[in-house]
Each structure stands twice: as structure tokens, then as C-alpha cells.
Design brief:
elongated, 124 residues, two-stranded antiparallel sheet, 2 domains, mainly alpha
Length: 124
Amino acid sequence: MKETPERILQVIYKLSLEDELLKSVEIGKRLELSRPDVFHAVKLLKGWGYVAQKRYGKIALTEKGREKAEKMQRIHRGLIQFFSHVVGLSEAESSAAAFSAEHVLSDNAMNKILDALIKYNLTK
């Protein structure tokens, strides 16, 4: 699978803003993933309590999943701001760096970056 379950959770979150209940095929199309890859990721997300799905039914975010996705969005936006305003990368480079950093930085490091952005008024 080329996408992480966390990335798939972010896509589910974005799609759920348009429609509360999603078909797995919609997720697969958005990320160009096979049905088995989507099935596997959804199974993991269900196990973690982030999504709910009845057998062969539509997928919905749980409250826990929505909170996790919103936190991930805040972190992603903050990292983009950091790489753009502090490091001086282009928008495209900042976005790519943020995706990479999300998977290697500790929660503490990301929170420190977000705190610094707020402290120096660098958030949008």
C-alpha cells in the first residue's frame, strides 16, 4: 500500500465534509488505491476506533476519528507554515516536507513547532 492509514483517514475526513457516509470506492478513486488496499486501511482504522462501517456498508468517521483527523489537519497546516515562513520553501516544497515530517517527527517536536508559530504569529 502506497498510502498510510493516517493519510487515508485525512482523505476520509475531507470527503466526509461533503458527505457523511462514504463508499470505499470513493476513497480508492481519490487516492488511486485498489479495493484490497482500501479494505485493509479501513479495517485498521475501524480497529483503532476512527471509522465505523457495517458489513459492506458505507464508511463514517467516529467522533474519535474526526478529532484525530482535525488534529492531523492542524499539524499539517502548521508544518506547511513552518516550512514556508521559517525555512523559506515554496508552497509545493512546504507541502511535501510537511507530509514527510508528519511521519518522522515526534508529537513533542510537532507541538513545539506549532507553539513557535503561534508565539511568533506566523500562523494563518
